[in-house]
Design goal:
- Pfam families: MFS_1.
- One of its GO terms (biological process) is lipid transport.
- One of its GO terms (cellular component) is lysosomal membrane.
- By secondary structure, the chain is mainly α.
- The chain has one domain: Up-down Bundle (Growth Hormone, Chain: A).
- The chain contains 19 helices and no strands.
- Helix 2 packs antiparallel against helix 10.
- The chain is globular.
- The two termini are 40 Å apart.
């Protein structure tokens, strides 16, 4: 897998039956010159002619997509920010509360292939508008569920997956059709900043809105209003660029999509896509369980250390750990994504495998620090926060790079499908089960006793 400076963007490099797409210039490079082997990248005027969009409009579209990406993750982790209050309100244990995230992720990964198929064939702007409008409505409804209807909360969180699937499978492909080479890498890094920042804001918004309103239900009523704004911005600002035109360096007609089964066969033979997706699955397993359980774990750690009283029935739980963890997630996300993109950009000039090497180093390097965070939880909450900070920074190095790898090893007419199946794989074997698994292990270790960390 090469970086965006050297990879054959418009070829299925690992698939012998999928050579360069007709219209692809020489290799290497996304727009390679057949004589010099150097990438030919259209200038701003060329991009505007090809896409029909000014540089300012293209940047504004990326800004709107970033806002919605931030909003999606903010909503996802608002629940984690008030999880202790949800447990007390519905009188549920850790295994049941772990199901909240598992049901959402399961729905998300089931719907992702549907929107991946639609996103490769129909207007992406309108698909996202419909999905986000539905997501906003369902999220608002989930804040009015009575305490004896926990199953209804699970149902509504599952339906939230409609909006997430409609957006996550499509938005990166729009960016790919607006920019190429280093421009694309930079825009993707901006787009993926929104994941950790939005996650952190979810913890912060959940905890602070609960404190101000005195009721955790209000924490779930913030993002639906912002979702309405997102739909309006999508409708008014975003325009559909021609698929793959910037990489062909022409304004010729878009590539014709192949059948869904042909897409699946080609993706299954694309080793770069499969291996990078498996690596990202490991990231999803860790971040999924960490995202849901870290605030609750930190709260219990401070209870064990005698720094805060335990949650009592009928009383609001301390929200300081959700706030601090949210701030850490925001900072480490910005630092990790930026660091990963910059290191890979420099490394790929001397090593064509720079991108996957940076991802592997970040994932492997995070393991000892997250383990030390668990070990130190009974002795020092400060040390725990420090090790979580380092571990999350290293994990965040993967986000933008993995997305860039997918875009330059998969042809434009298969990218939404590839995004969808990367989502399915990473969630099915990653964060769909890890939150529930952690909660189940916690319950089994505690038995009838509900004290201590796990």
């Amino acid at each position: 897998m090469a970086g965006s400076d050297t990879a054959p963007f418009l070829s299925q490099a690992d698939d012998p039956d999928d050579g360069p797409v007709p219209g692809t210039l020489g290799l290497p490079g996304s727009l390679g010159n057949p004589k010099s082997g150097e990438p030919e990248v259209p200038d701003q005027e060329g991009l505007q002619r090809i896409t029909g969009l000014s540089p300012a409009r293209s940047a504004l579209i990326v800004g709107v997509l970033c806002y919605i990406n931030l909003l999606n993750y903010m909503d996802r982790f608002t629940v984690a920010g008030v999880l202790p209050d949800i447990e007390h309100f519905f009188s549920i244990g850790d295994s049941s509360s772990g199901l909240i995230q598992t049901v959402f992720i399961s729905s998300y990964m089931v719907l992702a292939p549907v929107f991946g198929y639609l996103g490769d064939r129909y207007n992406r702007k309108y698909l996202m508008c419909g999905g986000i409008a539905f997501w906003s409505l369902v999220t608002l409804g989930s804040s009015f569920i009575p305490r004896e209807r926990f199953w209804l909360l699970l149902l509504t969180r599952g339906l939230v997956g409609v909006g997430e699937a409609s957006y996550s499978t499509i938005a990166p492909t729009l960016i790919a059709d607006l920019f190429v080479a280093d421009q694309r890498s930079r825009m993707l890094s901006v787009f993926y900043f929104a994941i950790p920042v939005g996650s952190g804001l979810g913890y912060i918004a959940g905890s602070k809105v609960k404190d101000v309103a005195g009721d955790w239900h209000w924490a779930l009523r913030v993002t639906p209003g912002l979702g309405v704004v997102a739909v309006l911005l999508l409708f008014l600002v975003v325009r559909e660029p021609p698929r793959g035109a910037v990489e062909r360096y022409s304004d010729s007609p878009p590539l014709n999509p192949t059948s869904w089964w042909a897409d699946l066969r080609a993706l299954a033979r694309n080793r770069s896509f499969i291996l990078s997706s498996l690596g990202f699955t490991a990231v999803a397993f860790v971040t999924g369980s960490l995202a849901l359980w870290a605030p609750a774990f930190l709260l219990r750690s401070r209870v064990v250390l005698g720094e805060t009283p335990p949650c009592l029935p009928g009383e609001s739980c301390s929200s300081s750990d959700s706030l601090i963890f949210g701030i850490i997630t925001c900072l480490t996300g910005v630092l990790g994504v930026g660091l990963g993109v910059e290191i890979s950009r420099r490394l790929r000039h001397s090593n064509p495998r720079g991108d996957p090497l940076v991802c592997a180093a970040g994932l492997l390097g995070s393991a000892p620090f997250l383990f030390l965070a668990l070990v130190c939880a009974r002795g020092s909450i400060v040390a725990t926060y420090i090790f979580i900070f380092i571990g999350e920074t290293l994990l965040s190095m993967n986000w933008a790079i993995v997305a860039d790898i997918l875009l330059y090893v998969v042809i434009p007419t298969r990218r939404s499908t590839a995004e969808a199946f990367q989502i399915v794989l990473s969630h099915l074997l990653g964060d769909a089960g890890s939150p529930y698994l952690i909660g189940l292990v916690c319950c089994l270790r505690q038995g009838p006793q509900m004290t201590g960390l796990w």
